[in-house]
Amino acid sequence: MILETTIIVIYTIALLLIFLYALAQLNLMINYLSATKRKKNDLKFNFQNPNEIPHVTIQLPVFNELYVMERLLDNIAKIEYPKDKLEIQVLDDSTDESLQKTAKQIELLKNSGLDIRHICRTNRTGFKAGALKEGLKTAKGEFIAIFDADFLPKPNWLKQTVPYFKNKKIGVVQTRWGHINRNYSILTKIQAFALDAHFTLEQTGRNSKGHFINFNGTAGIWRKACILDAGNWEGDTLTEDLDLSYRAQLNNWEFKYLEYVETPAELPVVISAARSQQFRWNKGGAENFQKMFLKILKNKDVSAKTKVHGFLHLLNSTMFLNILIVAILSIPMLYIKNEYGHLKAYFFVMSFFVISTFIFFICYWVMYRRIYGSKFKDFIQYIVMFITFFSIAMGFSLHNSIAVLEGHLGKRSDFVRTPKFNINSIKDSWKDNKYLKKNISGLVIFEGLLMLYFGFGMYSAFVVGDQGGDFGLFPFHLMLFLGFGFVFFKSLRN
């Protein structure tokens, strides 16, 4: 009974943590709905007065972006802002032929009257954080806008964001990500679905109540003084954006999130690219929890509620580990349930935690209807998307859990960039991309084995007990089977 008791205790703790996270999401949803009804009277620069238009530097940190550099620079050149108050820094750590092509294009833009500089380092110390820090040394701007290579800000982007810095307390203005290839495949659809929830419910829900939010690494703009006051960019985690965001807010800087300003970008279309991005984000989140949680806990200026939301924000990626634990232990739990009749009351109480799924369902619907619509057909499409998203997200849980464990245990790893493709429509192909990995991770084999394991879980529903089976966990195991199957076969194919 010792083994059974251990399984029950671990399973229960994981369920409780998931439920706590669901309650936090519910609170953010309530905050979000409240914020959308509130009238905003923000202090803003008057751009009709030339004396109120500040100097801005746009930083473009890039590394081997052969397929998107021309598109990026052409787009940035269209930004509407007084040329005498705009500087562009191309922070180029590239080591391939893109370096020379970029240099030629920058020279043409410079000849057109644009203040643009090509800054190249001899090493990649600190990776992206190191490049941003290097550029900051010579940046002319009082404010620093940052865009990754796959982002395409609209011409009026600076006019929509810079005015908010008239409020001297504002350290960052962050905008919402858009997705130019949202409908390219199931993979891009579920990525867009997850990001849309972050950029509506979570960012607005936290920001509206003064809780910590994060600069998302791109499509945002910093006050240079804020960066320096917070200790400048540091490359000791894989998510330097989250790190600097928390250090700045712990120094009492305020962040402004603009949901209405959309900055289009390209989603990874190949599962290997999505894997590398997910690994970096999830490991970086865990690394930042280890780096920040004591500072948050000890800070007397931070309210208890903001601390709780801050902890759960930094532990966001750790939910994948809890989901994986619940998933793997659910099959032994199925047999324990049907073997030990005296535990019937416990399993009755445990069924309460199904409510976590309903909370997520409601929260994501609030996001979905705002973006896609709230008609009956939209709701039916949402149900299909929600189930698909949850299944595939659980299919990524092993991969993401390893990233989380590495982050919490302090295992160091390099910053692995996400390959860009310049994919805009279903007609565009990614297969000749030189940056794609050709080898298959050994982890894929374990994902295939987990697919079979949850297939066994579905079979078990028919044979456990003496009452003709137990189908309570069958839908859960079916989703896990499909999710791990999707990740496994997609990884083999790609």
Describe this structure in words.
The chain has 2 domains: 2-32 and 317-421 and 432-493, no CATH class; 45-271, Spore Coat Polysaccharide Biosynthesis Protein SpsA, Chain A, CATH 3.90.550. 45% of the residues are buried. The two termini are 45 Å apart. It is built from 17 helices and 7 strands. Helix 1 runs parallel beside helix 13. It has a 7-stranded mixed β-sheet, with helices on both faces. Strand 1, helix 2 and strand 2 form a beta-alpha-beta unit. Helix content is 55%, strand content 10%. The protein is of the alpha/beta class and 494 residues long. The chain is globular, with a radius of gyration of 24 Å. The model has no long low-confidence stretch (mean pLDDT 93).
